[in-house]
Amino acid sequence: MSDNCNHHEGCGHDHLGNDLGPQDSLFSQIDRPNVIALNGAHKGSVVIKPWNEREDNSQYLESDADDQLILRIPFTSNVRLRSLLLKAGPGGKTPEKITLYANAPHLDFESVNDRNPSQELEIVQGNSVGEYPLRTVKFNNVSNLTLFVPAAQGDDVTRISYVGFLGHWTKRNEAPVVTVYEAQANLADHEKIQGMDGTYSNVGH
User: Fold this and answer.
1) Which fold has domain 3-171?
2) Spans of all domains in the chain
3) Percent of residues, the chain, with pLDDT higher than 90
4) Full-model pTM
5) E strand residue ranges, the chain
């Protein structure tokens, strides 16, 4: 990315020309079967594509009743997000902006305005994938991410054809920590201490 894009929230230019995909792509860490779209005319998972399909417009997510859209994206690991990758539109079907909420898996259209977003991005119209830098301090330990589109840029519906992320991930520890607490001491399990009840025992005696 150029220096201008490093300091701009809404850089819509395509700096991602490597056909092998960026090494810090988080595609493999997205729980694709459980991606949910609210007010979506299609399954939310259609926009989660491998890197080599990012420019494919045949599969897309479009809003249904109006131009608002919510996309809930769970991850299979704990991720640290650096950038949002987005391909939307064309034209007036491009989101006006996208607000992102980290670790808020149950947000809907009624509750989304009651919570402060982790970041808000203005979306630019374009024909290629745009990279939008994120404030990593706000997305440092993310297990799920909610994207909210409040309006399209003039059309009655919003259309998104690709969503991806750049960043780092760490394996989630699913095993619970088991701690056993003794509700009441069992004297048979413990050595008697000298001076207690006038008795004393020692190993080997």
Assistant:
1) Jelly Rolls (2.60.120)
2) 3-171
3) 72
4) 0.76
5) 36-38, 61-62, 69-88, 97-102, 119-122, 130-133, 142-149, 159-170
